[in-house]
TrEMBL record:
Substrate binds at Y572. FAD binds at N130, G131, M132, V133. Residues 1-20 form the signal peptide. It comes from Schizothecium vesticola. The keyword Signal applies. The active site is at H574, H617. Keywords: FAD, Flavoprotein, Signal. This is Glucose-methanol-choline oxidoreductase N-terminal domain-containing protein. GO terms for molecular function: flavin adenine dinucleotide binding; oxidoreductase activity, acting on CH-OH group of donors.
Length: 639
């Protein structure tokens, strides 16, 4: 048994206290029927996910005299880790909390394959179902966000310096025990962490025995092993914590950290199993806000209205918030008219600017099976080992392979540090930015100059990002095995999200349009050529590694592009940007205060407001954005 630090003991005590109190909390906080609600609320939040519950927690804390309602489609339920017992196949999915499992329309440039996206449908949203990789983006990503805003004197700033304090506030990092540190060579810098909120970032006590092998190969390639990558400096090889309780190693997510652990519930109601349908402005006047929120019981279909006195905050996610707005008559006028939806506010950016992390894979086999001198995923097929692993997971503190999430090691590499062709690629992006720029965009962009202007502005900052030797273009993560994803962090292609005209209450239609911009294919090619070098390091060749995909016979650009078209994963579950924080004249939906342009009493806080993707998995950024947003709201409402 490991010796617990005082902090660890306190964490464990808090966790057990919260679990024991949860029944009572649910008894008087959770609502399941409209007749249990108040006549009106000061704040109504549509969506009880990563951002929505963070906002709710901070507002109830700041304004105990005001009341707040969160409307959530899903319900309160257990959210297991990425893989918990009794699973015996590493990477196996299933058995988690509620999800929507969505597919896009076919992408012609990728052999008409579709994107597959999983979205949380539960209290806690996607933080309850994601891969638990808990990293932050590069400081240059968030600085790019700020460059895309109106250059006005008194607006809220969105850059690394303004977000960093909220990254710290949003998360608690616990130092792993000394014997675990020595075993796995974990490193960190506590100055990057704030340790003030029960959303935990933890390093697991276990790693598969081949994990260090790929890290050694990357170091052999000249990739520097960073002490810490959560401080905004993110280029090279990083240790990454997972979003897990440091003692129990169970999933840490907003349903716990911003719901079950909140102590003051008297002014906070959570209505579960209800869908936010639309927002209704009196007389159809978006200046006459805040709007009434129309909701629907998921169980019996009954429609009801909820009144907000101060603000309505949409936090239903990249796809959900878009659908609510479009059902409300807020969105592209031409599209709304095609569905006979009265146009309340013509905002072409609603449902535009969709993009996601994507990319092909590199894989290899071993001619002779290496002895990695320790546990491997195949050992889980041994019933004795699996019984031990299950028992170890239930120890206090938790031990063994089930304490792992998807990955704790990854590289983030800039374009400049991968290819001598970087200047030519960046020149192509700048040329596209300086031209009309509509050639590779969704057709509706061509009829709206604001969307084109916004895209050209994005191209300008993306060219700057990709030309920065400290701003990553490629991510690849490893936990175990013989497969690496070449994840493109800053795609140029843009898709759309549109309401389903035949069933408006169902999931919207996703058109990813992946690789529609040919420069994305060039970036994939650079990433693939760089990443396959891993297999050909002396580290892996000593273990008899042989490249399987794309395969040593594929060497020319034409051969590799054909492989990429056939083997690219279009979504690494990081969709963003469909209600982007951009100026109105650049196709924006919200301003820097996250108010919807032209709509009174309405704000949006979720990953849809990102202008462009950061070089990170999105969970930690969404928490920080929500914390920053709450501080802005609180300051404004106090005035």
């Amino acid at each position: 048994m490991r010796t617990l630090s005082l902090l660890a003991v306190l964490c464990l005590a808090a966790a057990k206290l919260a679990i024991s109190a949860r029944h009572d909390i649910n008894r008087y906080a959770v609502k399941r029927h409209v007749h249990e609600l108040a006549d009106a609320y000061d704040f109504v939040i549509v969506g009880g996910g990563t951002a929505g519950l963070t906002i709710a927690d901070r507002l109830t804390e700041a304004f105990p005299e005001k009341n707040l309602l969160v409307v959530e489609y899903g319900q309160v339920e257990y959210a297991p880790g990425t893989w918990d017992p009794p699973k015996v196949v590493w990477g196996e999915t299933g058995g988690g909390a509620g999800t929507w499992q969505l597919s896009s329309t076919p992408s012609p440039e990728l052999n008409n394959q579709t994107a597959f996206v999983i979205v949380g449908k539960t209290v806690g949203g996607s933080s309850a179902v994601n891969g638990m990789v808990f990293d932050r983006g590069s400081r240059h990503d968030y600085d790019a966000w700020d460059k895309l805003q109106d250059d006005t004197h008194d607006r809220p700033r969105w850059n690394w310096n303004t977000l960093y304090p909220f990254f710290k506030k949003s998360t608690t990092f616990t130092v792993p025990p000394l014997e675990v540190v020595k075993k796995h060579n974990y490193t960190w810098d506590l100055s990057a962490w704030g340790n003030s909120t029960p959303i935990y970032a933890s390093m697991p006590p276990f790693q598969w025995s081949d994990h260090q092998t790929v890290r050694d190969a990357w170091i052999e390639m000249g990739i520097h092993n960073m002490k810490e990558c959560a401080d905004g400096n993110k280029e090279n090889l990083c240790w990454v914590p997972c979003s897990a309780d440091p003692i129990m190693m169970r999933r840490s997510y907003s349903g716990l950290g911003h719901y079950a652990y909140v102590s003051n519930w008297t002014n906070y109601h959570l209505l579960v199993k209800h869908q936010g349908v639309r927002l209704v402005y009196p007389g159809g006047n978006p200046k006459a806000g805040p709007p009434i929120v129309e909701i629907r019981s998921v169980e019996n279909g009954t429609l009801s209205n909820v009144t907000a006195r101060a603000d309505v905050i949409l936090s239903a996610g990249v796809f959900g918030s878009t659908a609510v707005l479009q059902r409300s008559g807020i969105g592209p006028a031409t599209f709304l008219k095609s569905l006979n939806i009265p146009v309340v506010l013509d905002l072409p950016g609603v449902g535009s600017n969709l993009h996601d992390h994507s990319g092909p894979v590199v894989s290899w086999n071993y001619v002779t099976t290496p002895d990695f001198h320790g546990p491997m995923p195949s050992d889980l097929l041994n019933t004795t080992f699996t019984a031990w692993a299950t028992a170890a997971f239930n120890e206090t503190p938790a031990q063994g392979p089930y304490t792992l999430a998807m990955s704790n090691s990854a590289i983030w590499i800039s374009l400049v540090n991968m290819t001598a062709d970087a200047p030519a690629i960046i020149s192509r992006i700048r040329s596209l930015s300086n031209s009309n720029g509509t050639l590779y965009l969704p057709p509706e962009y061509g009829s709206d100059p604001t969307l084109v202007a916004g895209y050209r502005a994005q191209l300008s900052v993306l060219a700057e990002l990709l030309g920065n030797p400290h701003a990553p273009s490629l991510e690849s993560a490893i936990a175990t095995g013989t497969r690496l994803a070449a994840c493109a962090l800053h795609p140029l292609s843009r898709g759309t999200v549109r309401l389903n005209g035949t069933d408006r209450l169902s999931s919207p239609i996703l058109d990813y349009r992946s690789a529609s911009n040919p420069i994305d294919m060039t970036l994939h090619l650079v990433h693939l050529r760089y990443l396959r070098k891993t297999v050909h390091t002396e580290t892996l060749r000593r273990l008899t590694a042989v490249e399987v995909a794309p395969g040593v016979d594929l060497q020319t650009d034409e051969q590799l592009i054909k492989y990429i078209r056939a083997q690219t994963t279009q979504s690494y579950m990081h969709p963003c940007c469909t209600t982007a924080m951009l100026p109105l004249n650049q196709g924006g939906v919200v301003g820097p205060d996250l108010r919807v342009h032209g709509a009174s009493g309405l704000r949006i806080v979720d990953a849809g407001i990102y202008p462009i993707l950061p070089s990170a998995h999105l969970s930690a950024t969404t928490y920080a954005v929500a914390e920053r947003a709450a501080s802005i709201f609180i300051e404004q409402w106090r005035k």
